[in-house]
Design brief:
Blueprint lengths: L3 E6 L14 E2 L2 E2 H12 L4 E6 L2 H9 L4 E4 L11 H16 L5 E5 L8 H12 L5 E7 L9 E4 L3 E4 L17 E11 H6 L8 E5 L11 H12 L1
């Protein structure tokens, strides 16, 4: 079996939903759902949680993370990109475990509706293709060719992408997808040598809309909580 590392990155601060990574849903901290899915899959040599918050790291350990890494402040700001934080987690995990992982699977804490099939099928797709990385997403409700607009000079509206011919129904537009911030997979070479997300060989795994909600604000939290209470 290939050597895989699961990373789960969870900052202590959050502007949209305070302390969202450990907010309770159905009596369980949000981060616990990603950790438990990774554990149940039996796909990973280690499950590493990276955080600037000791409280989050302690909670993660109580739910079964095998490596817990204190994230430096430079990777923990509101404006800090995520890929450098994931790379830092990878490097520190290899130092701690004395292992070399062939690739990394990152599970975003704020997308807890992903299923075991989503995780396993994403990994299977990556395993069966010579790809650099993989992202997940769902079919978009809006189309840049039909009903997504941009504003010029703060007042004039136009389509994001102008089609070659007039389109009168959304159903006639090319399929477009939303990234859902659920599952990311990187090869070792990609994550260690670049901060890009899109390559010529970036794979896409489609998930249904109902499992693609990403908690970024209080309204998202209400939707996800209702879905998980069903």
């Amino acid at each position: 079996m290939k050597s895989r590392l699961c990373t789960i990155c969870a900052r202590g601060g959050s502007q949209g939903v305070p302390n969202k990574n450990i907010i309770l849903i159905n009596g369980k901290p949000l981060i616990a759902y990603s950790i438990e899915l990774a554990k149940k899959s039996n796909y990973f040599d280690d499950i590493a949680v990276s955080s600037d918050s000791q409280k989050i790291l302690d909670i993660a350990a109580s739910f079964g993370s095998t490596i817990n890494i204190k994230r430096p402040k430079k990777f923990s700001k509101d404006i800090s990109p995520k890929i450098p934080a994931i790379r830092h987690c990878w490097i520190k995990s290899e130092d701690i475990s004395n292992k070399q992982y062939e690739y990394i699977v990152d599970l975003d804490v704020t997308s807890p509706l992903r299923s075991m099939d989503d995780l396993k099928n994403s990994i299977k797709l990556f395993d069966n293709n010579n790809a650099t990385n993989l992202i997940t997403g769902c079919i978009s409700r809006r189309s840049p060719y039909f009903n997504m607009i941009k504003i010029k000079n703060k007042k004039y509206a136009s389509l994001v992408n102008s089609p070659d011919k007039q389109i009168t129904r959304r159903q006639d537009t090319p399929n477009c997808y939303d990234m859902n911030a659920s599952i990311y997979i990187w090869s070792r070479e990609a994550i260690m040598n670049s901060e890009k997300l899109f390559y010529e060989s970036t794979l896409f795994y489609e998930m249904p809309v109902e499992r693609s909600y990403d908690i970024d604000c209080e309204f998202d939290l209400k939707i996800v909580s209702m879905c998980m209470n069903d």
